[in-house]
Amino acid sequence: MIEKQTGRQIKRLRTDNGLEFSSGEFNKFCKDEGIVRHHTVRHTPQQNGVAERMNRNLLERARCMLSNAGLGKDFWAEATSMACYLVNLSPSTTIEYKTPKEVWSGTPADYSDLKVFGCTAYMHVNEGKLEPRTKKCIFLGYATGVKGYGLWYFDPKSQRFFISRDVTFDESAFLNVKKESTISLGTREEPESSKKVVSETIDESEPSTFKEAIQSDNSERWKEGILGVEDARYKACLVAKGYSQVPGVDFNDVFSPVVKHSSIRVLLAFVAMHDLELEQLDVKTTFLHGELEEQISIHQPEGFVVEGKEGHVCLVTKYLYCLKQSPRQWYKRFDSFMKKIGYFRSKYDNCVYFRKLDDGSFVYLLLYVDDMLIEAKEMEQINQLKTQLRGEFEMKDLGATKRILGIEIERDRKGLSPQNEKEKGYMLYVPYTSAVGCLMYAMICTRPDISHAVSVVSRFMSNPGREHWQEIKWILRYLIAGKLHYNMHVVALSTTKAKYMAVTKAVKEAIWLQGLYRESSTNDEVIVVFCDSQSVIHLTKDQMHHERTKHIDVRFHFIKDTIAQGTVMVKKIGTEDNLADMLTKSLPVKKFEHCLDLVGVFDG
Q: In the record, what terms sit under GO molecular function (predicted)?
C-alpha cells in the first residue's frame, strides 16, 4: 500500500519478535521483495520505542473512550481504531504541528464530521409503513473504504454491526451497555466499587435549584435551610433575576469600588513596621444591608406561592443578591456609616478608612466587598470598632488575620509573610489560560519574583504548545519549592524612551503611595525613584527638547514638572543593586537570589 500510494519502496523494516512478524511466509515475502529485516532483542521494547510509545498512546485513548461511553472491553478493537483515526487528525510537534493525514495525503484534516465515540446514534431505516423509522444504536467509528458510520445496534434479541450513511447523532447521550448488555461473551455488570464511587459523588453534589433540593434525599434539611435554619452544609439563598433588569428603568449606577491590592500591601507594611494588631471581619448577607431606592417587584419564590394568588408579585423591601445595584448600595450604606462614627475615607482609595486617636495613633479599615481588615496599635481600639460595626451590621469575627483575598498571612510578630499555598496546589489542575491568570494573581499579590517568567508565558495564551505548558509547570514547581508589573502599550523606538516611560509610570505609582501614606503621617520626605540609565535621568531633569526625544508623547513629560517641584528625585542605581532586573529579564541564579534578598522574599 505504501509503495502504491507514495511511490516509495520499503527498504528496511524494524519489528519485535511477535509471531505475526516471524512466520516463514512473512519472512519469505520480505526476502523476495528485498526488504531488510531488523528485530529487537527479546524483552527489550525500548529498541522499538516509537512503535511501543504509539501503542501505549492508542491504548490510553481507547480506555478513556470506553470509560466515557460506558462500554465494556468487547469494544476494544473499535475504540483502538477510533483512537488511531483521531491521532491521524491531531497536530504533532514532530511534524511542525501538521497532522499525519495532511503529511500523508497533502490535504488538510477535515473535522466537520467528527462525532463522540460511543454516543447515541439513530440509524434511519425503512422496514415498513408502520415500522419505526430509526433504530437506536451506538456510534463505534468510521467504516474503512466506505463513506459511512460504524454502528452497533443494541437489542437483547438482536445485536448487530451496521454501516450506514443516514444517521442522526445525540452526542450528549450514551447507552450504558455495561449494565444492559446480554452479549454472548458474558454478562458485564458495573463493579460494586464503581457504583459506590458514583453514589458518593452524586450524594455530595449540591442542588442548584429549588426543585432539585426538594427532590433530593436530604430534602428535609434543605427545607430547613430555605426557611432560615443555619447549617453549614445546607445553605439556601433567594436571588433575583438581575439579567432581566433594564438599564435606566430598573437601575442606574452599579459601580462599587473595592480596596486596591497596593493598599493592602501598604497596610501589611505598616503592621510589620510598627508591630500593630491586625484583625479580620466578614459581613453576613452583605447585599441585604443596602438601602432600597427603587421600587422592585419579583415573582413569588418557588415553594412560597400563595394559594389563590398565583398571579401576584412580591414587592422587594431589601436588596437581593444578583440585583445589578446591590453591590453599590451596600457600599453607599457602609460608607455613610463609617463617616457617621468619625472615620475618614482616603482620597487615594475609596475603600480605605482611617481615624486618628488622641494618642496620635491611627485605626485603619480596608473593605473588599464583605471582607474587612482592621489595623490598630491596641486590641482595645479594634474591639471598639468591632462593637460599632456589630451594632449596625450582622458580622462574623474571624479574629487575627490568616487569609485575605487568597493571600495567606503568616505572622511571628517579627514580620508578615504573605503566602499563596492553596492557590499553588490549585493551579496544578487548571487549563493553560486559567493557570496563567492564577500565576498573575500570585505575582501581583505576593510573588514579584515570577514577573518576568509570567510575562513570557502569557504571550501564548491564544495558542499554547507543549513547551509553554512545560514552562508553566516549571514556574509551579518553583512556587511549590519554596510590585505590579506593567506592560507598555506604546512601541518605544529606543531603550531610552522605553525606560523614560517606565520611570514616568513608576513616579505616578510612587506619588499615589505617598499620598496614601501622608494621610496618616507628617513625613514629607522626597520620593526617590531609582533608574539604571544615566541618559534617562538627564532627560527627566533637562527642560530642553532634543531631536531624538521630541517624538515622546507629552503625557510622559509630566515627570519633569514633578521633579522641578521637588516632589520626586530620580537617582542612578548600579546594575548589581537593581532589583527590578528580575522583573524584566532572565538572570543567573546568583543575581536572581540577590534580587530576592533585596525585596525581602528570599529565604535561602
A: hydrolase activity; metal ion binding; nucleic acid binding
